Amino acid sequence: MAQLLCEQGKDEQAQTVLVRIIQDHPEFMPAYCDLSAIQMRHHQDGEAVKTLVLGLKVSPHESILLNDLGMCEMVRGNHAAAAEAFTKAAGWAPDVPRYRSNLAAALGLMGRYGESVALYRQIMPTSDAYHNEAVLCSARGDHEAADAFKQAAPQESSQ
């Protein structure tokens, strides 16, 4: 029901449904994810973090909640907190490359380029890893490092 309401642009009503689901069925983790997503869309970052932390009190090793918490922290500019959440998510679900990719992004945004590109290289071609790192360097205003990653990126062979 909450998803249908969101699709119809009725986020306020969807929030009411999700809050009720969380109250009645606190073990239902998708409700925390969906509620925090609505909160983030409405720039209620603090509320989204509270929602995810509430879910993590019920299920402390829920990797999707940890990942979503990391995304909230990254949006808020708290890259160290984001990296911590992504590290935990990746630890609980090492087979999910998105969590390692998100960790790599947080590390890159902290200026920890070597660690970041090494993580990216575990989950994507080297040329893509270097490209991503260059984008992160640019986002930090580190254009010299961005140029270095662009130049160091292996070129795709056209065979």
Q: What is the second-level CATH architecture of the largest domain?
A: Alpha Horseshoe
CATH topology of the largest domain: Serine Threonine Protein Phosphatase 5, Tetratricopeptide repeat
The name of the CATH superfamily of the largest domain reads: Tetratricopeptide repeat domain
Query: Low-confidence segments, ≥5 residues, pLDDT <50?
Result: none
Q: Please tell me the overall pLDDT.
A: 93
Task: Indicate the proportion of strand residues.
Answer: under 5%
Q: Helical residue percent?
A: over 70%
Largest sheet: none
Gist of the model:
This protein is mainly alpha-helical and about 160 residues long. About 75% of the residues lie in helices and about 0% in strands.
Can you walk me through this structure?
By secondary structure, the chain is mainly alpha-helical. It folds into 2 domains: 1-60, Serine Threonine Protein Phosphatase 5, Tetratricopeptide repeat (Alpha Horseshoe), CATH 1.25.40; 80-153, Tetratricopeptide repeat domain (Serine Threonine Protein Phosphatase 5, Tetratricopeptide repeat). It is 77% helix and 0% strand. It has helices spanning 2-7, 11-24, 29-41, 45-58, 63-75, 79-92, 97-109, 113-123, 126-139, 143-152. Helix 4 runs antiparallel to helix 5 (63-75). The longest helix is centred in the first third of the chain and has 14 residues, at 11-24. The mean pLDDT is 93.
